[in-house]
Amino acid sequence: MNTLSLMDPALRKLMPRSSKLAPTKGRESAAKADGCASPSGSSALQPPQLPYAYDALKPQISPETMHYHFDKHYLGYVAKVNTLVAGTEYASMPLEEMIRQAAWKRKRSLQTNAAQVWNHAFFWDSLSPVKDRGPDLVLAEAIAKTFGSVGKFREKFVERGMAHVGSGWLWLAWHSERGLMIRTTENAIPVWLASGRIPLLVCDLWEHAYYLDWKNDRAGWLDAFVTRLANWELASKQNSAAVNGTAAWQYSA
């Protein structure tokens, strides 16, 4: 009997692309074929370059917040991942595959830190200093069809973020069967992990992302993000990639 057919569907979705429940030798060969590093791999994860200056997003995000958020929190996650993968098979994996492998093999510390690196990198690209830019016509029509209008989408986005208790991430995402959706994920979970969703935008719900500027006014932070900071150029490109089945955003330094 096929062991894979007996597996919980949620676990099947977590299976790394190189894993086929084959004998150990077969899994090692598959990993090499996919470009995964051997235990001697030593490639270090690199942080991306920010596409804007630390003061480019003020007054919504201050340079002080950017300094603490990027230099302390984000680079801390990058350093932790590099410590965890040093000298292991994970060291030269693409970050997305590293996250899948860590989730599949229940390596919680690696999964959490690697996912936070990915989430933050996508968050940096979800921000734009260009004001008053909206979605392209295709995405605007999809938003209007799903939520009623771009304005109603913004209201629902803030409402969903306010309903989320604790830390996490607030996403505009696309699914092949359900179309556009607003979702939150707990703590460090990427919206795409084991879900088939493609992220278009993400807003950081961890307090370190906004507390220096907004204190306990999460609603103010969410409204500022979706009305003044959101990178609709990225969202439109992601939507196009999702609808057309072309390559979407991936982590790269």
For the record, the CATH architecture of the domain at 137-244 stands as: 3-Layer(bab) Sandwich
- The rounded Rg comes to 19 Å
CATH class of the domain at 137-244: Alpha Beta
Rounded mean pLDDT is 86
Beta percentage is 5-15%
Span between N and C termini? 43 Å
The profile of the biggest β sheet is: 3 strands, antiparallel
Class inferred from helices and paired strands: mainly alpha
Pattern of helices and strands = HHHHHHHEEEHHH
Overall spatial form: globular
Low-confidence stretches: 1-42
Give the helix tally. Answer: 10
Spatial order of strands in the largest sheet: 2-1-3
Helix content: 40-55%
CATH superfamily of the domain at 137-244: Iron/manganese superoxide dismutase, C-terminal domain
What's the count of strands? 3
Describe the structure.
- This protein has 253 residues and is mainly α.
- Among the domains are: 63-126, Fe,Mn superoxide dismutase (SOD) domain (Helix Hairpins, Orthogonal Bundle), CATH 1.10.287; 137-244, minor pseudopilin epsh fold.
- Helices cover 48% and strands 9% of the residues.
- The chain has helices at residues 9-14, 24-33, 63-85, 95-104, 108-126, 137-147, 150-163, 211-214, 218-229, 232-244, and strands at 168-175, 179-186, 198-204.
- Strands 2-1-3 form a three-stranded antiparallel β-sheet.
- A hairpin with a 3-residue loop joins strand 1 and strand 2.
- The longest helix has 23 residues, at 63-85.
- It is globular.
- The termini are far apart.
- The relative contact order is 0.14.
- Residues 1-42 have low confidence and may be disordered.
